[in-house]
Design brief:
Layout (H helix, E strand, L loop, with lengths): L7 E5 L4 H12 L3 E5 L3 H13 L4 E2 L9 H15 L4 E4 L14 H29 L2 E5 L14 H21 L5 E7 L5 H5 L23 H12 L10 E4 L13
Helix pairs in contact: 1-2, 1-7, 3-4, 4-5
Length: 259
């Protein structure tokens, strides 16, 4: 039995990485996937892959998750196409790293808009549809929202992801009377094209981070999506307001000498 059979799942950021993995997996689990990304052609390719595998997906047009009109249009097209929305998976985001003494304010606010405002805009636009279907919300936090870092200067990223975790708990509280569940998945270091271009690049101090992770490896997009599928399914029907950390144990241990 497919765990998301017939559910309409709105997933942002489906062009690459975790978003593409989510779209493919949710479709394989029986969901009707509505994707979106600023990288529209790549998101359409994700849709094509889903179609070739015999599942159903829709990618209405370029999606800017920081623009209210763009988000509202995307949500409307999803609801019009499939008659409602069961799952909102607010995955899309973008980050600019920087230390407190050097990061420009514009860079800080860019990150908050892309990683925090985007979640609020997406959930607000879809809220009435979630109420009608007793749906669920999935957000993407981060271990950056739980702990500081000695190697990555990330004030904006830490602030935005801490905000996502807190926002998710409030959504759980406000959604409970309507049967809406809201949960967060907080990844640690995940091996994607984006992370390989910065945090895992050869010249970055975090490039050898796998040696510090108790399970001995960086995560994959599928590691994150496995948790998301569970939280979106009826198997998690009594779970709301949770923050499920997917980091190989990274955030549970104190820094120390590597063996």
């Amino acid at each position: 039995m497919k765990r998301l059979e017939g559910k309409v799942a709105l997933i942002s950021g489906t062009a690459r990485g975790q978003g593409r993995a989510a779209a493919l997996r949710f479709a394989a689990e029986g969901a009707l996937v509505v994707g979106g990304d600023l990288l529209h052609e790549e998101a359409v390719e994700t849709q094509r892959v889903i179609a070739r595998e015999g599942s159903t997906a829709l990618t209405p047009g370029p999606l800017d998750v920081t623009d209210e009109d763009s988000v509202r249009s995307w949500v409307k097209e999803a609801a019009d196409a499939f008659g409602g929305i069961d799952i909102v998976y607010a995955n899309a985001g973008a980050v600019r790293f920087g230390a407190i003494d050097s990061q420009p304010y514009e860079s800080f606010t860019y990150t908050l808009r892309a990683e925090l405002d985007s979640v609020w805009l997406t959930v607000q636009a879809a809220w009435r549809h979630l109420v009608a279907r007793r749906g669920c919300v999935l957000t993407i936090g981060s271990t950056a929202g739980l702990t500081g870092s000695l190697t990555n200067r990330r004030t904006a990223h830490s602030a935005s992801k801490g905000g996502v975790i807190a926002l998710t708990r409030q959504l759980a509280a406000e959604g409970a009377p309507y049967g809406i569940r809201a949960n967060c998945v907080s990844p640690g270091m995940i091996d994607t094209d984006g992370s390989r271009a910065n945090l895992l690049a050869e010249d970055h101090p975090m490039r050898s981070i796998a040696r510090h992770i108790p399970l001995g490896r960086t995560g994959t997009p599928d590691d994150v999506v496995n948790a998301a599928v569970f939280l979106a399914s009826d198997q998690a029907s009594y779970i709301t307001g949770a923050n499920l950390v997917v980091d190989g144990g990274w955030s549970t241990v104190l820094p120390g000498a590597c063996p």
